[in-house]
Amino acid sequence: MAEREHKHVRVAVIGSGFGGLGAAVRLRRQGITDFVVLERADSVGGTWRDNSYPGCACDVPSHLYSFSFAPNPQWPRNFSGQPHIRAYLERVTDTFGLRPHLRFNSEVHSLRWNGEELHWEVETASGPLTADVVVSATGPLSDPKVPDIPGLDSFPGKVSHSARWDHDYDLRGKRVAMIGTGASAIQIVPAIQPDVERLTLFQRTPPWVLPRADRKISAAEKWLHTKLPVTRAARRGLLWGIRELQVSAFTKRPNELGPIEYLAKNHMKKAVKDPALRAALTPDYRIGCKRILLSNTYYPALAQPNVDVVAAGLKEVRGSTLVGSDGSEAEADAIVFGTGFHVTDMPIAQRVTGADGTTLAEEWKDGMESLRGATAAGFPNFLTIIGPNTGLGNSSMILMIEAQLNYLGDFMRQLDILGGKIALSARPSAVKEWNRKLQQRMERTVWNTGGCDSWYLDANGRNTTVWPGTTSEFKKVTRQVDLAEYEVLRPPRKPVTAPVAAPAEVAA
Ligand SMILES: Cc1cc2nc3c(=O)[nH]c(=O)nc-3n(C[C@H](O)[C@H](O)[C@H](O)COP(=O)(O)OP(=O)(O)OC[C@H]3O[C@@H](n4cnc5c(N)ncnc54)[C@H](O)[C@@H]3O)c2cc1C
Questions:
Q1: What residue ranges define each of the domains in the chain, with the CATH number in brackets?
Q2: Which Gene3D superfamilies does the entry link to (predicted)?
Q3: Crossing angle of helices 219-227/229-251, nearest 10°?
Q4: Residues 337-379: pLDDT tens digits?
Q5: Distance 280 CA to ligand 1 centre (A)
Q6: N or C terminus of the chain: which is more exposed, having fewer CB within 10 Å?
Q7: Which letter, b or e, does each residue of 270-290 get, where b requires 16 or more Cβ atoms within 10 Å of its Cβ?
Q8: If you measure from the C-alpha of residue 47 to the centroid of ligand 1, how many angstroms do you get, rounded to a whole number?
Q9: Which residue, by CA, sits nearest to atom 27 of ligand 1?
Q10: Can you tell me the distance from the alpha carbon of 275 to that of 265, in angstroms, rounded to the nearest whole number?
């Protein structure tokens, strides 16, 4: 059998969404070209490649939901759709010369720290390699979660998840059951409702939904943003500033969010005239506790005669009959799960084995913990983009990703300054202190006090996903690596073997 090529790189980046591509740009800008981007799929885009369901779009305005170093004056709408965001990421890949670094169909199966050589041994679907540094950008929302529903195997029709849309299956004229009422579901419902025969929405918890200020960006605006970049920067600055001002209500004064609930209720009232349906759609927790959703078409779609809302979760499936936990039954030809992703149990964590021989998943069995959202104790030279407690409730994740790219940049600089074969490993005490402060701040936030059970919280009820501050604060605390928070590892000294004396000399 031919021996597999074994390559060594300075950096292995995993994933080619906003995070992985951003890391690649940052490395190149720092003059580092000895790196690969390992991607399990066959193209770039991450979230925006995998989510192609009808109606898929961002819910943060495009001029903020894009890289500051790769502005796009041509965004077609305030909230651009998936095809445009995916095309944007393809352009970023070309503009910054990233193609030579991409390794598609290279799912990372395992990562093992080698403490003798101070490098990571990486097993991928396209062969093994070793890397001094690993940047994991596998995404917080990239592995779909389907709940374990008794009897689902007995369903004779089509079963799919919002993040794996089958464009060959035609929903027109079918009886469709939509499971879940999160960000994806509320985009899918109005997009398919006019075409399906019957739509049954299984709603465990109703979301708070606000109007979506979406519109086409005019040719004049695009022209202005192209000719006068300062207008585009001002637009981005305004979008960012408004969201920064909202943060303290989420993190310190949830009661200030009360008037927003009034707006949301009014928004519903305009579209839903049936008081019983309105009651079923009205949340019983503080707005902001779960992600606030934006839509002008969700409530009008739910008010249509071909839609039923089952205000209960899906309990079981009996053949083509779906049974709600309130006992109600609905017939369906197709089930669409809009049930989210593995967020607090990041799948890559099971595949990473650190310095002590334990996996990151084992280390995180009581909850994910990192230092500044990036590094974990016992996992040297391993950085995560969008790691624990870096999520946002109200603004663009690209701002957080860019802050983490600064941290990555400084991490690489520190390795260069220290020189030689070297690794940085987060001190357990630093990780502990960072998380103690985080959790202390978390106590007052709407995510912890708002009376809801959301995907922000892990199985122990701990919030290990959201950042309890402004994006500018996160940028500040990730600008530089504080070496006091790290142990500097150097290769163990090889034992010096004493020359063996000749027998005659011994006798003398
Ligand atoms: C439908 C949807 C809408 C969203 N809208 C917004 C929004 O409006 N605003 C906002 O701020 N955020 C939004 N998000 C969150 C979004 O996930 C982030 O904004 C951002 O796109 C994450 O980028 P990423 O690169 O970290 O992860 P992803 O884009 O998820 O990319 C991860 C990549 O890693 C690859 N990968 C995973 N595991 C492996 C492995 N073992 N080996 C090799 N490759 C692997 C995946 O194939 C994928 O390409 C949305 C998410 C979804 C799902």
A1: 8-142+342-489 (3.50.50.60), 152-215+247-337 (3.50.50.60)
A2: FAD/NAD(P)-binding domain
A3: 100
A4: 999 998 888 899 999 999 999 999 999 999 999 999 999 999 9
A5: 32
A6: N
A7: ebbeeeebbebbebebbbbbb
A8: 4
A9: 139
A10: 12
